[in-house]
Amino acid sequence: xxxxxxxxxxxxxxxxxxxxxxxxxxxxxxxxxxxxxxxxxxxxxxxxxxxxxxxxxxxxxxxxxxxxxxxxxxxxxxxxxxxxxxxxxxxxxxxxxxxxxxxxxxxxxxxxxxxxxxxxxxxxxxxxxxxxxxxxxxxxxxxxxxxxxxxxxxxxxxxxxxxxxxxxxxxxxxxxxxxxxxxxx
Length: 185
Known about the structure:
By secondary structure, this protein is of the alpha+beta class.
């Protein structure tokens, strides 16, 4: 997958020495990439909050909430595997959908027709202006990887970056084993 073009539904893996604390060892699901810019969500930065703390009238629901990125951290987004069950959602990858009708989502939750493993909520998003992500790719800030719904819905966020990096193979398997904070003293 390395070297493929930027398209919706791929994972951006931060190179291991990225200094930006927002993206250090992050795995970002790219949900939209076009002429005007790009939008994605960091899949491996859980925050210690419940969705009920963030949305006042949301039914009681014990779903994971993540830091989606540093842009508009006053917004909530969601990625799920509900497909057509949630109208107006956008298919991002096989078994991975973005957004959808919020009132229907609340109905499905209150009716217990979905469980917390079907959805991930994100505070804010990762955004790039026109050409910015392409420029970051040129300088090697990101490694591209294929998306698998299991990464988001089954794998522990603590292991996600390392697992996806290892699955690319070749030198990336070695990079995945590097400690988080190497001391080259």
